[in-house]
Amino acid sequence: MSQPEAFGRYRVIRRLGSGSFATVWLAQDDLLNYPVAIKVLAENWAHQMDIQHRFLEEARILRQTDSTWLVAVHDVDVLADGRPYMVMTYADQGSVADLIRRGPLPLDEALRLLTEIGQGITVLHNHGTIHRDIKPSNVLLQSSPVGQRVLVADLGFAKAIDEASGFTAAAGTPGYMSPEQSIPGGDLDVRSDVYSLGAVAYELITGKPPSRPPVRIPPGRIRPGLPRELDDLILSALSVDRESRPGDAKTFTDRVRAIRTAPDLTKADPWWRRYRMPWRRAAALVTAAVVGMGVLTGATGAPGVSLTTVRHTAQGIRMGVPSVWAEEFHTDLEARPAAAEAGAGPGLLVATDTEDWHSTEVPSYGVYATVVPGSRALDRVADPDPCPGTPDRREVRTDSWEGTVWDWPECNGNGSFTSAAVHQPGVPTTVYMEIRQPDYRPDLVNEIIDRTVLS
């Protein structure tokens, strides 16, 4: 529909989004000088009384529960063409789905969000309602004087628990809905929402939704270092057998809260997540630290590969990196333990996916480099075991660099991995590098090393 001027006293500003059943508009309540969101039933459903009933039932549930953890409904009215609309809380910080897309969340923040989402679903369960469509895009975020608030929203598929036996139609979103929801006429209970909470938890922790059921890969394999209790809880919530899931949203939420408040939680996050700065939230720093980008398209010694020049001014290092890898930047990634123990500070990572650089499950291709000052033994700087098996060791010597390279032509089924410790002849400063490739190309490794410059 085209943008209307107003809904009653509410002046329309812009459209926020739309779905199959409704469109949501941002509007201004000029009387109270306050922004609101207005959800209007879509025109093609104007004469479908069952859809209108579902729409109004969502408004009734939200109005009756009136919870801090749920979107509030302030008013309901009907347009001239008979379509109902509801005036709701405006969530000015978008949704949890938006937050996940911006980059990996610190573990404590992910668990805080999950706890508050669980509290919202607990309120619904106490009200005698099953949500049936819990997913990151249906959890909104609002700023408040005491910080960010979580608001569970979109109860278009919600049903009373005492009507849960024999739903006539499947409802929910694939990837988040429980297996029993996909069966028309299935017997549902609150444990269907527990499955969806488990799916949201999986995505909050790993940045990726779970696979189709049965889910067998625990979050800790994608994000190493998680507490074992968290892996166990999420996998149990995602169990195909609902008898194996936590009994309700409160039970699930209480266990999340206990994990979050455990005194050793900060130790559970692996070292590269505890100390690194999320690259997507550091645009200003990236602009300052990675400058002077250009493409080297001549004969590079690596056939068919164009190299992009990247620079980390804080460490005074410049590198040539394959252009197809230079999709993301991280300017403050902590070095692996062996290099850190030898004195290496945080370095520059240029890769197809900076989030998964240290993962053994998900391939990420690129180059990491950091400077190790002083006179160091090269064998002490190189990480001895990033991949299974014994690496191929070789010496490198060019006009600019000399040192040692360790190659794993096959690393965890995700291409090749190379670590290198090189220094300029007569200069006691070592550059430690890691290079991940989809295929093993020692010529490209040599070219990247040769085009590395210290200023």
UniProtKB/TrEMBL annotation:
Binding site for ATP: K39
Keyword Chaperone attached: no
EC code(s) of this entry: 2.7.11.1
Keyword annotations from UniProtKB, A to Z: ATP-binding, Kinase, Nucleotide-binding, Serine/threonine-protein kinase, Transferase
Domain of life: Bacteria
N-terminal signal peptide: none
A molecular-function term among this protein's GO annotations: protein serine/threonine kinase activity
Domain Protein kinase residue range list: 10-272
Pfam families reported for this sequence: Pkinase (PF00069)
SUPFAM superfamilies documented for this protein: Protein kinase-like (PK-like) (SSF56112)
Name this polypeptide is given: non-specific serine/threonine protein kinase
Protein source organism: Nocardiopsis lambiniae
